[in-house]
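=== Structure Prediction Worksheet ===
Name of assembly: unnamed complex
Input type: mixed (protein and possibly other molecules)
Chain count: two
Listed entries:
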Amino acid sequence: MRLGADRILAAPIEDVWSIVTDPERVLSYMSGITRWEVAGDLRTGLGARYRILFRVGAAEVGGLVEVVEFDQPCNFAWTSVTGLDHRGRWRLREAPGGRTRVEFRLAYVVAGAGLSGWVAERVAAPTVAGHVRRTLQQLDRLVGHEQLRARAARRRPPATRP
Amino acid sequence: MAEARTTTSAHRNGREAETPIESPVPESSGALFTRAWRGLAGAVQRRIPRADLDERDPDYIREQLPLFWLFSSLWFRGEVRGLGNIPDEGPVVLVGNHSGGNMIPDTMVFTVAFSTYFGVERPFYQLAHNLVLSLPGLSWLRKFGTVAASPENARKALSSGAALLVYPGGDYEVHRPSWQSSRVDFGGRKGFLRLAIEQDVPIVPVVAIGGQETALFLSRGERLAHLLALDRVLRLKVLPISISLPWIVNVGDFGHIPLPAKITIETLPAIDLRAEFGPDPDVDEVYDHLIRLMQDALDALAAERRFPVIG
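=== Predicted Assembly ===
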Protein backbone atom coordinates (compact mmCIF):
# COMPACT_ATOMS: atom_id res chain seq x y z
CA MET A 1 0.00 0.00 0.00
CA ARG A 2 1.42 3.34 -1.02
CA LEU A 3 0.07 6.51 0.52
CA GLY A 4 1.12 10.08 0.04
CA ALA A 5 0.11 13.70 0.30
CA ASP A 6 1.64 16.98 -0.74
CA ARG A 7 1.38 20.59 0.31
CA ILE A 8 3.03 23.91 -0.42
CA LEU A 9 4.65 25.41 2.65
CA ALA A 10 5.49 29.09 2.97
CA ALA A 11 9.13 28.62 3.88
CA PRO A 12 12.45 28.23 2.09
CA ILE A 13 13.46 24.67 1.23
CA GLU A 14 16.48 24.68 3.59
CA ASP A 15 14.29 25.51 6.59
CA VAL A 16 11.89 22.67 5.83
CA TRP A 17 14.79 20.29 5.23
CA SER A 18 16.37 21.06 8.58
CA ILE A 19 13.07 20.26 10.33
CA VAL A 20 12.25 16.98 8.57
CA THR A 21 15.74 15.58 8.99
CA ASP A 22 16.08 16.47 12.67
CA PRO A 23 15.30 13.29 14.69
CA GLU A 24 14.46 15.30 17.80
CA ARG A 25 11.65 17.21 16.11
CA VAL A 26 9.81 14.35 14.44
CA LEU A 27 7.51 13.79 17.43
CA SER A 28 6.34 17.41 17.25
CA TYR A 29 4.78 17.16 13.78
CA MET A 30 4.45 13.54 12.67
CA SER A 31 0.97 12.27 13.39
CA GLY A 32 0.50 8.87 15.03
CA ILE A 33 4.17 8.55 15.90
CA THR A 34 4.98 7.48 19.44
CA ARG A 35 8.72 6.94 19.15
CA TRP A 36 11.51 8.21 16.90
CA GLU A 37 14.72 7.40 18.66
CA VAL A 38 18.28 7.48 17.38
CA ALA A 39 19.67 3.94 17.35
CA GLY A 40 23.40 3.91 16.82
CA ASP A 41 26.14 6.51 16.66
CA LEU A 42 24.94 8.50 13.68
CA ARG A 43 22.35 11.14 14.62
CA THR A 44 21.38 12.11 11.09
CA GLY A 45 22.52 11.62 7.50
CA LEU A 46 22.86 8.65 5.22
CA GLY A 47 22.95 5.40 7.19
CA ALA A 48 21.49 6.86 10.38
CA ARG A 49 19.23 4.40 12.18
CA TYR A 50 16.13 5.12 14.19
CA ARG A 51 13.77 3.06 16.26
CA ILE A 52 10.30 4.22 15.32
CA LEU A 53 6.74 3.34 16.27
CA PHE A 54 3.41 4.41 14.80
CA ARG A 55 0.07 3.83 16.44
CA VAL A 56 -2.20 1.98 14.04
CA GLY A 57 -5.30 0.30 15.43
CA ALA A 58 -4.67 -1.69 18.58
CA ALA A 59 -0.90 -1.76 18.23
CA GLU A 60 2.15 0.37 17.79
CA VAL A 61 3.95 -0.82 14.69
CA GLY A 62 7.32 0.08 13.30
CA GLY A 63 10.76 -1.17 14.11
CA LEU A 64 14.29 -0.25 13.23
CA VAL A 65 14.68 1.94 10.13
CA GLU A 66 17.70 3.19 8.22
CA VAL A 67 18.11 6.36 6.16
CA VAL A 68 18.81 5.30 2.59
CA GLU A 69 18.59 8.66 0.78
CA PHE A 70 19.89 11.94 2.06
CA ASP A 71 20.23 14.43 -0.81
CA GLN A 72 20.28 17.82 0.80
CA PRO A 73 17.84 19.59 0.50
CA CYS A 74 15.58 17.48 -1.76
CA ASN A 75 15.22 13.83 -0.84
CA PHE A 76 15.11 12.12 2.51
CA ALA A 77 14.06 8.47 2.58
CA TRP A 78 14.24 5.60 5.03
CA THR A 79 13.50 1.92 4.82
CA SER A 80 12.71 -0.63 7.50
CA VAL A 81 15.39 -3.01 8.74
CA THR A 82 13.24 -4.93 11.23
CA GLY A 83 9.55 -4.84 12.05
CA LEU A 84 6.87 -3.77 9.61
CA ASP A 85 8.19 -3.63 6.04
CA HIS A 86 7.86 -0.03 4.94
CA ARG A 87 9.50 2.96 3.29
CA GLY A 88 9.09 6.60 4.06
CA ARG A 89 10.07 9.54 1.90
CA TRP A 90 10.16 13.31 2.07
CA ARG A 91 10.39 15.02 -1.36
CA LEU A 92 11.10 18.70 -1.13
CA ARG A 93 11.08 20.93 -4.21
CA GLU A 94 11.45 24.67 -4.54
CA ALA A 95 8.20 26.45 -5.40
CA PRO A 96 7.80 30.01 -6.74
CA GLY A 97 7.92 32.81 -4.19
CA GLY A 98 10.47 31.26 -1.85
CA ARG A 99 8.07 28.51 -0.90
CA THR A 100 8.52 24.74 -0.83
CA ARG A 101 6.45 21.93 -2.28
CA VAL A 102 6.57 19.09 0.23
CA GLU A 103 5.51 15.54 -0.51
CA PHE A 104 5.35 12.89 2.20
CA ARG A 105 5.05 9.25 1.14
CA LEU A 106 4.63 6.11 3.16
CA ALA A 107 4.62 2.69 1.50
CA TYR A 108 4.09 -0.45 3.55
CA VAL A 109 3.50 -4.07 2.88
CA VAL A 110 2.34 -6.83 5.20
CA ALA A 111 4.51 -9.44 3.56
CA GLY A 112 3.84 -13.15 3.40
CA ALA A 113 0.79 -13.18 5.62
CA GLY A 114 -1.76 -14.36 3.06
CA LEU A 115 -5.32 -13.15 3.07
CA SER A 116 -5.17 -11.65 6.56
CA GLY A 117 -2.16 -9.57 5.51
CA TRP A 118 -3.98 -8.33 2.43
CA VAL A 119 -7.01 -7.38 4.53
CA ALA A 120 -4.92 -5.82 7.30
CA GLU A 121 -3.09 -3.68 4.75
CA ARG A 122 -6.37 -2.26 3.49
CA VAL A 123 -7.98 -1.91 6.89
CA ALA A 124 -4.99 0.08 8.12
CA ALA A 125 -4.88 2.31 5.02
CA PRO A 126 -7.42 4.97 6.11
CA THR A 127 -5.66 5.36 9.46
CA VAL A 128 -2.23 5.64 7.85
CA ALA A 129 -3.56 8.03 5.17
CA GLY A 130 -4.96 10.18 7.99
CA HIS A 131 -1.57 10.19 9.70
CA VAL A 132 0.13 11.23 6.44
CA ARG A 133 -2.35 14.06 5.86
CA ARG A 134 -2.17 15.34 9.43
CA THR A 135 1.62 15.12 9.40
CA LEU A 136 1.71 17.63 6.55
CA GLN A 137 -0.81 19.90 8.27
CA GLN A 138 1.19 19.83 11.48
CA LEU A 139 4.45 20.40 9.61
CA ASP A 140 2.83 23.36 7.86
CA ARG A 141 1.82 24.82 11.21
CA LEU A 142 5.25 24.21 12.73
CA VAL A 143 7.07 25.74 9.75
CA GLY A 144 4.67 28.71 9.80
CA HIS A 145 5.41 29.34 13.51
CA GLU A 146 9.14 29.13 12.92
CA GLN A 147 8.93 31.63 10.07
CA LEU A 148 6.89 34.04 12.19
CA ARG A 149 9.34 33.79 15.05
CA ALA A 150 12.28 34.27 12.73
CA ARG A 151 10.68 37.37 11.18
CA ALA A 152 9.82 38.77 14.62
CA ALA A 153 13.38 38.20 15.76
CA ARG A 154 14.68 40.08 12.74
CA ARG A 155 12.35 43.06 13.42
CA ARG A 156 13.34 43.26 17.10
CA PRO A 157 16.22 45.66 17.74
CA PRO A 158 19.36 43.90 18.91
CA ALA A 159 19.38 43.49 22.67
CA THR A 160 21.49 46.02 24.47
CA ARG A 161 23.69 44.81 27.29
CA PRO A 162 23.04 46.48 30.67
CA MET B 1 7.79 -43.96 22.36
CA ALA B 2 8.77 -45.22 25.81
CA GLU B 3 11.64 -42.79 25.78
CA ALA B 4 9.33 -39.96 24.82
CA ARG B 5 7.08 -40.80 27.75
CA THR B 6 9.96 -40.78 30.17
CA THR B 7 10.95 -37.31 29.07
CA THR B 8 7.38 -36.11 29.34
CA SER B 9 7.02 -37.37 32.86
CA ALA B 10 10.33 -35.76 33.76
CA HIS B 11 8.72 -32.48 32.79
CA ARG B 12 5.66 -32.88 34.93
CA ASN B 13 5.74 -30.16 37.45
CA GLY B 14 5.79 -31.90 40.73
CA ARG B 15 2.06 -32.40 40.79
CA GLU B 16 2.14 -36.15 40.12
CA ALA B 17 1.88 -36.80 43.83
CA GLU B 18 -1.60 -35.31 43.75
CA THR B 19 -2.65 -37.62 40.93
CA PRO B 20 -2.36 -41.16 42.28
CA ILE B 21 -2.41 -42.83 38.88
CA GLU B 22 -0.73 -46.00 40.13
CA SER B 23 -2.82 -46.57 43.27
CA PRO B 24 -5.04 -49.67 43.20
CA VAL B 25 -8.62 -48.97 42.20
CA PRO B 26 -11.29 -50.73 44.24
CA GLU B 27 -13.81 -52.42 41.98
CA SER B 28 -16.87 -50.52 43.19
CA SER B 29 -19.73 -48.90 41.32
CA GLY B 30 -17.69 -45.75 40.69
CA ALA B 31 -14.64 -47.70 39.55
CA LEU B 32 -15.36 -47.33 35.87
CA PHE B 33 -15.84 -43.59 36.23
CA THR B 34 -12.65 -43.22 38.25
CA ARG B 35 -10.69 -45.33 35.82
CA ALA B 36 -11.97 -43.35 32.86
CA TRP B 37 -10.92 -40.09 34.54
CA ARG B 38 -7.49 -41.46 35.34
CA GLY B 39 -7.08 -42.62 31.78
CA LEU B 40 -7.92 -39.11 30.64
CA ALA B 41 -5.50 -37.63 33.16
CA GLY B 42 -2.77 -39.90 31.82
CA ALA B 43 -3.61 -38.91 28.26
CA VAL B 44 -3.45 -35.22 29.14
CA GLN B 45 -0.14 -35.65 30.95
CA ARG B 46 1.33 -37.44 27.96
CA ARG B 47 0.17 -34.69 25.64
CA ILE B 48 1.81 -31.88 27.61
CA PRO B 49 4.68 -30.93 25.38
CA ARG B 50 8.19 -30.64 26.67
CA ALA B 51 9.12 -26.99 27.07
CA ASP B 52 11.42 -26.42 24.17
CA LEU B 53 12.05 -22.69 24.03
CA ASP B 54 13.30 -23.13 20.51
CA GLU B 55 9.78 -23.93 19.36
CA ARG B 56 8.99 -20.23 19.41
CA ASP B 57 9.12 -19.14 15.80
CA PRO B 58 9.49 -15.38 15.09
CA ASP B 59 8.69 -15.84 11.39
CA TYR B 60 5.50 -17.67 12.23
CA ILE B 61 4.49 -14.95 14.71
CA ARG B 62 5.22 -12.28 12.11
CA GLU B 63 2.97 -14.04 9.62
CA GLN B 64 0.14 -14.41 12.12
CA LEU B 65 0.30 -10.89 13.52
CA PRO B 66 -1.93 -9.30 10.82
CA LEU B 67 -4.78 -11.69 11.62
CA PHE B 68 -4.50 -11.08 15.36
CA TRP B 69 -4.07 -7.37 14.76
CA LEU B 70 -7.35 -7.38 12.82
CA PHE B 71 -9.17 -9.15 15.66
CA SER B 72 -7.53 -7.00 18.24
CA SER B 73 -8.26 -3.71 16.45
CA LEU B 74 -11.68 -4.33 14.92
CA TRP B 75 -13.34 -6.81 17.26
CA PHE B 76 -11.93 -5.83 20.64
CA ARG B 77 -10.95 -2.21 19.85
CA GLY B 78 -7.84 -2.98 21.86
CA GLU B 79 -5.94 -0.24 23.59
CA VAL B 80 -2.60 -1.00 25.20
CA ARG B 81 -0.94 1.77 27.14
CA GLY B 82 2.44 2.20 28.76
CA LEU B 83 4.43 -0.48 26.94
CA GLY B 84 7.39 1.87 27.37
CA ASN B 85 7.36 0.85 31.06
CA ILE B 86 8.73 -2.54 30.08
CA PRO B 87 12.54 -2.55 30.06
CA ASP B 88 13.75 -2.49 26.44
CA GLU B 89 15.80 -5.63 26.88
CA GLY B 90 16.62 -8.39 29.31
CA PRO B 91 14.46 -10.79 31.28
CA VAL B 92 11.28 -9.47 32.84
CA VAL B 93 8.22 -11.05 34.44
CA LEU B 94 5.00 -9.51 33.13
CA VAL B 95 2.25 -10.18 35.64
CA GLY B 96 -1.28 -9.88 34.35
CA ASN B 97 -4.79 -10.21 35.72
CA HIS B 98 -6.55 -12.74 33.56
CA SER B 99 -9.99 -12.28 32.05
CA GLY B 100 -12.34 -13.52 29.40
CA GLY B 101 -12.71 -17.26 29.96
CA ASN B 102 -10.84 -19.76 27.86
CA MET B 103 -10.80 -17.51 24.78
CA ILE B 104 -8.30 -15.24 26.59
CA PRO B 105 -8.94 -12.09 24.53
CA ASP B 106 -6.73 -9.96 26.79
CA THR B 107 -3.73 -12.19 26.15
CA MET B 108 -4.24 -11.86 22.41
CA VAL B 109 -4.49 -8.07 22.51
CA PHE B 110 -1.42 -7.82 24.73
CA THR B 111 0.65 -10.30 22.71
CA VAL B 112 -0.02 -8.42 19.46
CA ALA B 113 0.89 -5.12 21.08
CA PHE B 114 4.04 -6.51 22.70
CA SER B 115 5.22 -8.22 19.51
CA THR B 116 4.79 -5.15 17.34
CA TYR B 117 6.23 -2.80 19.96
CA PHE B 118 9.40 -4.74 20.70
CA GLY B 119 9.55 -6.71 17.45
CA VAL B 120 8.98 -10.42 17.02
CA GLU B 121 12.72 -10.92 17.49
CA ARG B 122 12.53 -10.24 21.23
CA PRO B 123 12.09 -13.57 23.01
CA PHE B 124 8.71 -13.58 24.71
CA TYR B 125 7.08 -16.57 26.38
CA GLN B 126 3.71 -17.04 28.00
CA LEU B 127 2.88 -19.57 30.69
CA ALA B 128 -0.33 -21.49 30.07
CA HIS B 129 -2.36 -24.15 31.80
CA ASN B 130 -1.33 -27.73 30.99
CA LEU B 131 -4.75 -28.42 29.56
CA VAL B 132 -4.46 -25.56 27.07
CA LEU B 133 -1.23 -26.96 25.69
CA SER B 134 -2.52 -30.50 25.53
CA LEU B 135 -5.70 -29.66 23.60
CA PRO B 136 -5.58 -30.88 20.03
CA GLY B 137 -5.44 -28.09 17.47
CA LEU B 138 -3.67 -25.64 19.74
CA SER B 139 -0.11 -26.71 18.99
CA TRP B 140 0.40 -23.41 17.13
CA LEU B 141 0.40 -21.69 20.53
CA ARG B 142 3.84 -23.18 21.12
CA LYS B 143 5.15 -21.32 18.08
CA PHE B 144 3.95 -18.15 19.78
CA GLY B 145 6.11 -19.01 22.78
CA THR B 146 3.46 -20.53 25.02
CA VAL B 147 4.89 -23.06 27.46
CA ALA B 148 3.28 -25.14 30.20
CA ALA B 149 3.11 -23.29 33.50
CA SER B 150 5.74 -24.74 35.77
CA PRO B 151 8.61 -23.29 37.79
CA GLU B 152 11.18 -25.13 35.63
CA ASN B 153 9.80 -23.74 32.39
CA ALA B 154 9.59 -20.24 33.82
CA ARG B 155 13.15 -20.47 35.15
CA LYS B 156 14.36 -21.69 31.78
CA ALA B 157 12.70 -18.82 29.94
CA LEU B 158 13.97 -16.15 32.33
CA SER B 159 17.52 -17.43 32.42
CA SER B 160 17.54 -17.29 28.62
CA GLY B 161 16.90 -13.55 28.94
CA ALA B 162 13.30 -13.60 27.72
CA ALA B 163 10.23 -11.67 28.74
CA LEU B 164 7.75 -13.95 30.46
CA LEU B 165 4.02 -13.32 30.72
CA VAL B 166 2.35 -14.96 33.70
CA TYR B 167 -1.24 -14.93 34.86
CA PRO B 168 -1.01 -16.11 38.47
CA GLY B 169 -4.81 -16.15 38.78
CA GLY B 170 -4.98 -18.57 35.85
CA ASP B 171 -8.11 -20.69 35.50
CA TYR B 172 -9.33 -19.42 38.87
CA GLU B 173 -9.33 -15.75 37.92
CA VAL B 174 -10.25 -16.05 34.26
CA HIS B 175 -13.65 -17.56 35.07
CA ARG B 176 -14.64 -15.18 37.85
CA PRO B 177 -18.22 -13.93 37.56
CA SER B 178 -18.69 -10.98 35.22
CA TRP B 179 -19.77 -8.71 38.08
CA GLN B 180 -16.30 -9.15 39.58
CA SER B 181 -14.77 -7.87 36.34
CA SER B 182 -12.83 -5.12 38.06
CA ARG B 183 -11.26 -7.26 40.79
CA VAL B 184 -7.74 -8.59 40.76
CA ASP B 185 -7.90 -12.08 42.24
CA PHE B 186 -4.79 -14.25 42.07
CA GLY B 187 -6.25 -16.70 44.58
CA GLY B 188 -3.16 -16.26 46.76
CA ARG B 189 -0.75 -17.72 44.19
CA LYS B 190 2.72 -16.37 44.81
CA GLY B 191 5.05 -18.76 43.02
CA PHE B 192 5.83 -16.18 40.35
CA LEU B 193 7.16 -13.79 42.98
CA ARG B 194 9.51 -16.40 44.46
CA LEU B 195 10.72 -17.01 40.94
CA ALA B 196 11.26 -13.31 40.19
CA ILE B 197 13.19 -12.91 43.45
CA GLU B 198 15.25 -16.03 42.81
CA GLN B 199 16.10 -14.99 39.26
CA ASP B 200 16.48 -11.33 40.27
CA VAL B 201 14.37 -9.98 37.43
CA PRO B 202 12.03 -6.98 37.51
CA ILE B 203 8.29 -7.48 37.42
CA VAL B 204 5.93 -5.37 35.36
CA PRO B 205 2.23 -5.40 36.27
CA VAL B 206 -0.11 -5.59 33.26
CA VAL B 207 -3.65 -4.61 34.13
CA ALA B 208 -6.49 -5.42 31.75
CA ILE B 209 -10.20 -4.77 31.68
CA GLY B 210 -12.94 -5.82 29.30
CA GLY B 211 -12.31 -9.54 28.98
CA GLN B 212 -14.94 -10.44 31.53
CA GLU B 213 -17.56 -8.69 29.38
CA THR B 214 -17.02 -10.97 26.38
CA ALA B 215 -19.58 -13.36 27.88
CA LEU B 216 -21.79 -13.44 30.98
CA PHE B 217 -19.70 -15.48 33.37
CA LEU B 218 -21.94 -16.81 36.12
CA SER B 219 -19.88 -19.10 38.30
CA ARG B 220 -16.53 -20.78 38.52
CA GLY B 221 -18.28 -24.03 39.34
CA GLU B 222 -15.70 -24.97 41.94
CA ARG B 223 -18.01 -27.44 43.68
CA LEU B 224 -18.89 -29.05 40.38
CA ALA B 225 -15.21 -29.41 39.54
CA HIS B 226 -14.57 -30.99 42.92
CA LEU B 227 -17.50 -33.38 42.56
CA LEU B 228 -16.20 -34.54 39.20
CA ALA B 229 -12.65 -34.85 40.62
CA LEU B 230 -11.37 -32.44 37.96
CA ASP B 231 -9.16 -30.75 40.52
CA ARG B 232 -7.22 -33.95 41.17
CA VAL B 233 -7.22 -35.31 37.66
CA LEU B 234 -6.71 -32.31 35.39
CA ARG B 235 -5.41 -29.66 37.81
CA LEU B 236 -8.68 -27.83 37.11
CA LYS B 237 -10.17 -26.20 40.14
CA VAL B 238 -13.08 -24.85 38.16
CA LEU B 239 -15.79 -25.97 35.79
CA PRO B 240 -17.10 -22.58 34.71
CA ILE B 241 -20.69 -21.86 33.89
CA SER B 242 -21.43 -18.94 31.63
CA ILE B 243 -23.93 -17.60 29.15
CA SER B 244 -22.11 -17.17 25.89
CA LEU B 245 -22.46 -17.47 22.14
CA PRO B 246 -23.31 -19.74 20.45
CA TRP B 247 -24.11 -22.18 23.28
CA ILE B 248 -26.27 -19.88 25.41
CA VAL B 249 -25.59 -21.97 28.55
CA ASN B 250 -21.95 -22.96 28.46
CA VAL B 251 -20.60 -25.42 31.01
CA GLY B 252 -16.87 -26.03 30.92
CA ASP B 253 -16.15 -23.33 28.33
CA PHE B 254 -14.50 -25.36 25.59
CA GLY B 255 -14.64 -22.31 23.37
CA HIS B 256 -17.22 -19.66 22.63
CA ILE B 257 -17.62 -16.61 20.44
CA PRO B 258 -16.53 -13.65 22.56
CA LEU B 259 -18.65 -10.52 22.47
CA PRO B 260 -16.81 -7.54 20.96
CA ALA B 261 -16.08 -5.91 24.30
CA LYS B 262 -13.53 -3.12 24.35
CA ILE B 263 -10.30 -4.29 25.94
CA THR B 264 -8.05 -1.78 27.61
CA ILE B 265 -4.68 -2.79 29.00
CA GLU B 266 -2.36 -0.67 31.06
CA THR B 267 1.26 -1.55 31.70
CA LEU B 268 2.52 -0.14 35.00
CA PRO B 269 6.08 0.93 35.83
CA ALA B 270 8.54 -1.91 36.41
CA ILE B 271 9.21 -2.98 40.01
CA ASP B 272 12.75 -3.86 40.95
CA LEU B 273 12.03 -6.16 43.90
CA ARG B 274 15.42 -5.94 45.62
CA ALA B 275 15.64 -2.16 45.20
CA GLU B 276 12.18 -1.64 46.70
CA PHE B 277 11.95 -4.41 49.27
CA GLY B 278 15.54 -4.93 50.36
CA PRO B 279 18.00 -7.72 49.61
CA ASP B 280 15.68 -10.43 50.91
CA PRO B 281 12.13 -9.41 49.94
CA ASP B 282 9.23 -10.84 51.89
CA VAL B 283 6.97 -12.61 49.39
CA ASP B 284 3.75 -11.82 51.25
CA GLU B 285 4.63 -8.15 51.51
CA VAL B 286 5.46 -7.92 47.79
CA TYR B 287 2.28 -9.82 46.93
CA ASP B 288 0.08 -7.43 48.92
CA HIS B 289 1.84 -4.42 47.40
CA LEU B 290 1.45 -5.78 43.87
CA ILE B 291 -2.23 -6.62 44.33
CA ARG B 292 -2.85 -3.13 45.72
CA LEU B 293 -1.04 -1.49 42.78
CA MET B 294 -2.90 -3.56 40.21
CA GLN B 295 -6.25 -3.11 41.94
CA ASP B 296 -5.79 0.69 41.97
CA ALA B 297 -4.96 0.67 38.25
CA LEU B 298 -7.91 -1.60 37.51
CA ASP B 299 -10.24 0.66 39.52
CA ALA B 300 -9.07 3.60 37.39
CA LEU B 301 -9.68 1.63 34.20
CA ALA B 302 -13.11 0.58 35.48
CA ALA B 303 -13.98 4.19 36.26
CA GLU B 304 -13.19 5.12 32.64
CA ARG B 305 -15.75 2.68 31.32
CA ARG B 306 -19.22 4.00 30.83
CA PHE B 307 -21.00 0.92 29.49
CA PRO B 308 -20.27 -2.79 29.58
CA VAL B 309 -19.03 -4.22 26.27
CA ILE B 310 -19.13 -0.81 24.54
CA GLY B 311 -16.47 0.51 26.89
